[in-house]
Amino acid sequence: MKLVRHGPSGQEQHGIVDQDGQLRDLSGRVDAGEDVLDPAMPKRLQGLELASLPVVRSPYRLGPCVAKVGKIIGVGLNYHQHALESGMAAPAEPVLFTKATTALSGPNDDVFLPPYAAKTDWEVELAVIIGRRAKNVPETAAFDYVAGYSTMNDISDRALQLEGTGQWFKGKSLDGFAPLGPWFVTADEVPDPQNLRLWLSVNDEMKQDSSTADMLFPVRHLVSYISRHMTLMPGDIIATGTPQGVGMGHKPPTYLRTGDVMKLSVEGLGVQQQVVRAE
Fold it and tell me: Which of 57, 93, 94, 99 is geometrically suited to a Cys-Cys bond with 72, CB 3.0 to 4.6 A?
C-alpha cells in the first residue's frame, strides 16, 4: 500500500494511492488522528474497495507521509562512495545523529533558507519507518519491526554542521530540512531495500544517482544496531544515509541558492520536488 497525508499543514487527512496512481481520500474510513502504523490498520485497509473512495482532485498539498514521529535518527557516511568524496575513512560502525521532528515537511513544500544558512546541501535518502517497539533486536528479526519505507531529503547546512562548534543536530534541523514522502510504502511492497535506485537533481542536472546496494551498513543491521542503543518506537524514522554527489563533495563545493529546484526519488517510493526560497 502507498499511504499519504494530504491537506493544509497541520490539517492533513489520510489518503491512499490506487493502482492507477490516483490519490483516494480515506476520510471517514480512517480518522485524521488515527495511527496508520497500528498493527490492525493494514487489515482494515486491505478490505477496502479503493474504487469506492473519493478521488482527491488536483491541486492538493501532500504533508509528511507519517504522523506522530517521535524521533528521526540519521546515519552519516553510510555509502562507500560518499565516504570517499567526503575525504573520510569508512566508519567501523554506524555514525548516528538526530534531526528535530520540527524539520519535517511535505515532499513538495518550499524549502526556506535563513540568511545565515550559506552552505545548504542536498541528500537523498531511503527512510525506514518503524512499526513496532524495538529494543535489542537481532539482525535476523530486524524486518519484523519495519512498517515501511519512504524518501527523505536530509537537507543539511554544512557551515552549521561542520564549522565553528560543528553541531550536526543544528545543521540538519532547520525548519523544513526533512521533506518526507510523497508516500509511506508498506514493507510488503519493498522486498529488498538493498536494491533500490535513488537519485537527486538540482535544476534538472543530475547530482546523485546510485543504489542502496552501496550502503556500508544495510537496513537490517541499522535497525538492530540502533535498537541496542535506544528503544525505537512506532513512527520513528531512520534516515539511512546518502550516496555520493552532495554539493560539499564538488570541487569547488556547490550549495543551494534561492530559486533552485530539487527533484529526488527512491525507486518505488515516489518523487519529491522542492523550490528553494529565501526566508
Answer: 99
